[in-house]
Write a structure and sequence with these properties.
127 residues; alpha/beta; Signal recognition particle alu RNA binding heterodimer, srp9/1; 2,3-Dihydroxybiphenyl 1,2-Dioxygenase, domain 1; 2 domains
Length: 127
C-alpha cells in the first residue's frame, strides 16, 4: 500500500512560494540549509534564494517547491483547502503574506498565492 511522501508544487521562484506556504500553514517551516548544502549550491552557482527545489517540512508531510521548466497551465488542477476557526481573520493574515482574494462565497474564500496558485479558506466544520 502506498502513502504520500510529499506534495510537489511547480513554481517560478521556489524560495518565494515556499516562504509563503511556510508562513501560511501552522507548524510548517522552510527546511534549513546547512553549510554543506550552501557549499553544494555555491559550487553550481546557486544560493538558497535561487535553489530550484525548496522543501517545507510540516507534521503530516513535506511540501516540495520545484522550479517549473515551462509555461504555466492556466489553472492548477489540485489546490489546498485551508481550514480556519475565523475565516475572515485568516484571509487577512494570508493577504499580509502576499495572497490575493479572487472570490468570496458563504462556504469559502478563493485566493491566489504570490505566484497565482489558487487555494481556498473554509471555516472549521462544526462536529
Amino acid at each position: 500500500m502506498a502513502k504520500i511522501r510529499e506534495i510537489v508544487i511547480d513554481c517560478d521562484v521556489p524560495s518565494r512560494v515556499a516562504r509563503f506556504w511556510a508562513g501560511a500553514l501552522d507548524d510548517y517551516h522552510v527546511r534549513p540549509y546547512d553549510d554543506a548544502e550552501i557549499a553544494r549550491l555555491a559550487a553550481i552557482g546557486l544560493t538558497p534564494e535561487t535553489d530550484p527545489v525548496v522543501m517545507v517540512d510540516g507534521p503530516p508531510l513535506t511540501l516540495c517547491f520545484h522550479q517549473r521548466g515551462g509555461p504555466r497551465a492556466d489553472r492548477n488542477r489540485i489546490h489546498f483547502d485551508l481550514e480556519a476557526i475565523d475565516r475572515t481573520q485568516e484571509v487577512a493574515r494570508l493577504m499580509s503574506l502576499g495572497a490575493t482574494v479572487l472570490r468570496e462565497t458563504e462556504q469559502y474564500t478563493l485566493l491566489r498565492d504570490p505566484e497565482g496558485n489558487q487555494f481556498c479558506v473554509v471555516a472549521t466544520r462544526e462536529v
